[in-house]
Fold this sequence. Notes:
Blueprint: E1 8-14, H1 24-28, H2 30-35, E2 38-48, E3 55-60, E4 63-71, H3 72-91, H4 102-120, E5 128-132, H5 139-145, E6 152-155, H6 163-166, H7 172-180, E7 184-187, H8 190-206, E8 222-225, H9 232-242, H10 248-251, E9 256-261, H11 270-283, E10 291-296, H12 305-325, E11 333-336, H13 342-351, E12 354-357, H14 366-374, E13 382-386, E14 399-401, H15 406-418, H16 421-437, H17 440-462, H18 465-468, H19 475-492
Parallel strand pairs: 1-2, 1-5, 2-4, 5-6, 6-7, 7-8, 9-10, 9-12, 10-11, 12-13, 13-14
Antiparallel strand pairs: 3-4
Helix pairs in contact: 3-4, 4-5, 5-7, 7-19, 8-19, 9-13, 9-14, 11-12, 11-15, 13-14
Bound molecules: GDP-alpha-D-glucose.
Amino acid sequence: MSRKLSRLVLVSNRVPVGxxxxxxxxxxxxxxxxxxxxxxxxxSGGLTDKTxxxxxSIRRGNVEYAVTxxxxxxxxxxxxxxxxxxxxxxxxxxxxxxxxxxxxxxxxMAVNARFARELFERISPSDQIWIHDYHLIPLAxxxxxxxxxxxxxxxxxxxxxSPEIFRAIPQHAALASGLMACDLVGFxxxxxxxxxERYAAEQAAMSALPxxxxxxxxxxxxxxxxxxxxxxxxxxxxxxxSAGCAPAALVGAGKCxxxxxxRMDYSKGLVERVTAIETLLDSRPDLCxxxxxxQVTPPSRGEVDAYAQLRIELExxxxxxxxxxxxxxxxxVRYLAxxxxxxxxxxxxxxxxxxxxxxxxxGMNLVAKEFVAAQDPRNPGxxxxxxxxxxxxxxxxxxxxxxxDPAQQARAIEHALAMPLPxxxxxxxxxxxxxxxxxxxxxxxxxLQELAVATSRSSAVQAGAAHAHNEPLxxxxxxxxxxxxxxxxxSGS
Length: 493
Ligand code: GDG
């Protein structure tokens, strides 16, 4: 007899309530959304002039969406402000772009407190709670203030920076307290998990707490890596159906298409990538008129200055390269400052000989996985991949590069263009094997299973049972427990 699953409460900044094509998170959560009772709570994407506008609730089958508008002040302080001007750049190692405005931090905390208050009224004791991403780091701690004892998991979609960087955020201790209030914190990669654990250990050491200090919060948080996956089988089918999207002049005999697909974001290494294309054409003039690079770049966060500036810098750089190399018949770079329908994108991936996924920093990067899944296994294209994307831990068979080195990136593109078919097939098969094994279902199932384990473990710890079972806590867990004490004290001071 199958055990009845408790209701799952999902919390994310944006809730995909009116979307006809499911985005990355809805695809990754598909299994949970189709098999369980779900409450999905968060921002509607709309703005209001009224404070306390309340929630709108929409039910679709077993999923109830409960969404709230933000006031203009909340949007500016919480979303455009602290989340995207302080946390996003800091977590992507861009302290030079980070702005830590105390009033924006206060609004960020206030929105998290409001979300906690509104959610508290809707949760029941048996619910499992799963919070997503950097907008909502303090939410678990805010829920605990209301006496919520439900299992709470948090998944960080973006990198967790090294402790040296994280500690530069003036509010790092308060942020860490938010994570420590969870039973389970999931990261995209082992690098992120170990960065967090190093921070926890260093904080514990700095606070001069004994290594096995008991934790005040009652739970012992676990930190683990759960690389997010895609529906590789479904995406491969979509790409096969949509192949042939690229203009024939770019992919005909003797022609090769190089493709990049990224939100307009300074973390994605766009300017460095165009510079690598210039370096390639300088060193290999014979490739002119034979290779074309298409860059699909839907605009993003244009209200934040750094994004508007990036757009100017990127467009200047593309103009420079096109100005140098374009002939009457051919241009090296085709730049689309807009998104494409998903099926066209899948078809373009399949038509491309080389996929460039070269972020300066990325939590995972789903484009890399989609590019691989979209390839024709009989004649697959080659992925050139930054070592600083979380996905590089899973796909070592890609051509791994340092995006800060345009000459190395250019050599990798050359290597990709010249790679013999058997080698392409071998690398592709190995990557497909990983994508199929660690797909979206695996990610969702593994996180929720660990949340259940972490929860029962933390209940056992609360009951003083850990020692009775003779099960020693790991060093990171001890450090994390100690951090909770340090974090509470620091943020309360
Ligand atoms: C964050 C983390 C992490 C892009 N252009 C178009 C389009 N896209 C789709 C892609 C892909 C998604 O957007 C982008 O996902 P990424 O993972 O590459 O990057 P972020 O948006 O920065 O996502 C990241 C992710 O969260 C998940 O945890 O991997 O590290 O930064 O699915 O296909 N889709 C359509 N047209 C476009 O022009 N339809």
